[in-house]
Records
---
Amino acid sequence: MLALAQTGVGHLITDYGHDELIIVHVPLALVVFGVTLSLSSYAITVLRGATHER
């Protein structure tokens, strides 16, 4: 859902010239990137734990 919002805001900036939305676009990108890293790290930790229990 956040990635969809990020894409929509990006298109508003580039296609329609709403440069004032950059103030929303950049922090939203950082949040999306941070959540992606956190979930990936968690998934790796869970998978490694499941592998070691066998």
---
Amino acid sequence: MNNPFIIGIISWILPGLGHLLQGRLKRGLIIVAVFWAMFIIAVLSGGAYYPGFDFKDGTLLYLLNIFARLGSGLGAIISFVLMSSPPNNVASWATFEYGGRFLEIAGLLNYLAVLDAVDIQQGRKK
């Protein structure tokens, strides 16, 4: 794979795969483990249903939440599907906001992993 764009897309869709394809086994497995652990904890905590408000209620916070969640690639699709039918009492869960933060941080972590994979592919990092 000599195309940094392809490496970036693969790394974004499946976190850690870009590193694994480049032979960075240890780094790739760490990214896979950390990302998916954070993602699973976030979803089980009710984070897929956060924020509990609409675009009109808090525009900037809503957009930041969406941007961070989109960083998850495949995880973003999973979380958006789960978000479409939230339980009635999800906002009363004690872990609701923590789960939302975990989900956002997992997406932001994946953005950094994508940049790292592209830098490795282009030879800017070893």
---
Amino acid sequence: MKKLIVLEGLDGSGKATQAELLQEKLNNLGQKTCKISFPDYTEKSSELIKMYLNGQFGQDVNAVSPYVASTFYTVDRYASYNLKWKTTYQQEAFIIADRYTTSNIVYQMAKLKDSEWDVFLEWLYDFEYNKFKLPKPDLVLYLDVDPEISAKLLTKRYGNECNSRDLHEKNMEYLKLCRKSAMYAAEKLGWKVLKCFEAGKIKLMEEISADILKNVLKWVKEAGE
């Protein structure tokens, strides 16, 4: 049984922190793990992504076609998989991904009309999993945070340095569209949505972490039956 677990969510939803906590907890349970993160900004394979997010191809999110932008991220994943974690994956360790193909769905599909979403999903799945032969996720956990809360968390992260935000993070209306595309994908593709906020605030980090581990262990049990 392959064990590629993806944590997905809007910017500011705490994916990186939760990926670290999940790895720690699985390690404590005696499991072999490997944590990966996308984009892989430590490698040259992410250069086109950096240019895109810095607005070098246009300051509007729609300046770059979702199909073209998706290609930037796919190539970065291809390099990461083949150079860093392919062997570990084939040994069936738990691979914990902070973002994956799912981010192309959330952020790039949002640029399209709703009527074009299914065509995009079909193209993306064929492109990444058939053409590039990247592994498919076994479990996707979407950390659902209201875009308004996400914006507040980003403000807390960057302070008044608005120029530090990337092309996606600067656009609130776009983040709302991203959440809409995420909810559609979750229902169509079977992602597990974890509500990470209530009463206008994000839940405690420990509460979200416990919910993630509960769902992972439930999935492992069901997969083994």
---
Amino acid sequence: MDEKDISQAVIGRLPRYFRYLGELKYEGVERISSQELSEVMKVTASQIRQDFNNFGGFGQQGYGYNVEYLYQEIGKILGLDKKHNLIIIGAGNLGQALANYMNFERRGFIMKGLFDSNPELHGKQVRDIIVQPMDHIMEFVKENEIDIAVLTIPKTSAVEVAEHLVQNGIRAIWNFAHVDLNVPEGIQVENVHLSDSLMKLSYNINRYDTEHKK
């Protein structure tokens, strides 16, 4: 595959393709056309073809797409053929919920550690992971080859924690703290603002109501 700039919009659709193809694979579907995939995913067939052409196409004219092959190839593009060790910083309700979500490990994201600044949580077990103090993080990152840190902590401490993580070799941060992180080039950050998603939902409700009152 030639190296080229792929738009974030295309990259953002890849997990959906992977998920839907996984469901089709589970249902025993062996091949599917772009039109059929379009009907399942509610994305136009031309958009699907354009997206896949960024990575070589994958299909055969008159045949469509082999579901198993396409599922595996998109998994490789997403890096899901590799294992990624991660830690969660912040063992409150959200941190514990994420730690208990088994599907991460089915996708190759291996939860290795859970940390919190609250002494009352130290020693608490979430699945088979013991909550540790914050001052254990940096040594733990190095010893366990941690790739990804998940931040579910207040924004007041997120920036400082992120800086220390980067200095100690973290390659990516999944950030649930309500602050956008500025990190050096080469460090990947995915900011997840839950309230933004709710406000977007509120906007769509409001727009729908307005349009249907006309």
